[in-house]
């Protein structure tokens, strides 16, 4: 009896690398899970829209304005509340 090894499965798992790029705001290296449409920077909290040129190659398309504007506004309001 012949047993077929699941070699294709193994190579698929091994080939599952994560795409990396830099945060435009703070230049932190971010890892994007495959197929994700947005990615949040763990360092500064800004969010970026991601487009996938290739299954292994993510690219930042632009900021998620709703999130980044809110973060910027929070910064401003913190400063505006007499915090010296
Ligand atoms: Zn960042």
Q: What does the main sheet amount to?
A: 3 strands, antiparallel
Instruction: Give the overall pLDDT as a whole number.
Output: 81
Provide the gyration radius in Å. 19 Å
Which strand order does the major sheet show? 3-4-5
Q: How far apart lie the N and C ends?
A: 78 Å
**What is the SS-derived class?**
alpha+beta
Beta fraction: 25-35%
Q: Detail the poorly predicted runs.
A: none
Total domain modules: 1
- Helix proportion of residues, in percent? 25-40%
Number-wise, the strands total: 5
Please give the count of helices. 2
Attached small molecules? zinc ion
Short recap of the structure:
29% of the residues lie in helices and 31% in strands.
Question: What do you see in this structure?
Answer:
The protein is an alpha+beta fold and about 80 residues long. The protein has one domain. Helices cover about 30% and strands about 30% of the residues. The protein has 2 helices and 5 strands. The protein has helices at about 5-15, 65-80; strands at about 20, 30, 40, 45-55, 55-65. The strands form 2 sheets. It has a 3-stranded antiparallel beta sheet with strand order 3-4-5. The protein has a two-stranded antiparallel ribbon with strand order 1-2. Strand 4 (about 45-55) and strand 5 form a beta hairpin. The mean pLDDT is about 80. The site of zinc ion (ZN) has 8 residues, from loops.
């Amino acid at each position: 009896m012949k047993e077929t090894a699941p070699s294709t499965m193994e190579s698929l798992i091994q080939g599952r690398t994560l795409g990396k790029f830099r945060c435009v705001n703070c230049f932190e290296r971010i890892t994007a899970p495959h197929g994700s449409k947005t990615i949040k920077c763990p360092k500064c909290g800004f969010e970026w829209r991601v487009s996938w040129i290739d299954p292994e190659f993510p690219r930042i398309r632009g900021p998620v304005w709703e999130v980044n504007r809110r973060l910027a506004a929070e910064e401003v309001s913190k400063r505006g509340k007499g915090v010296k």
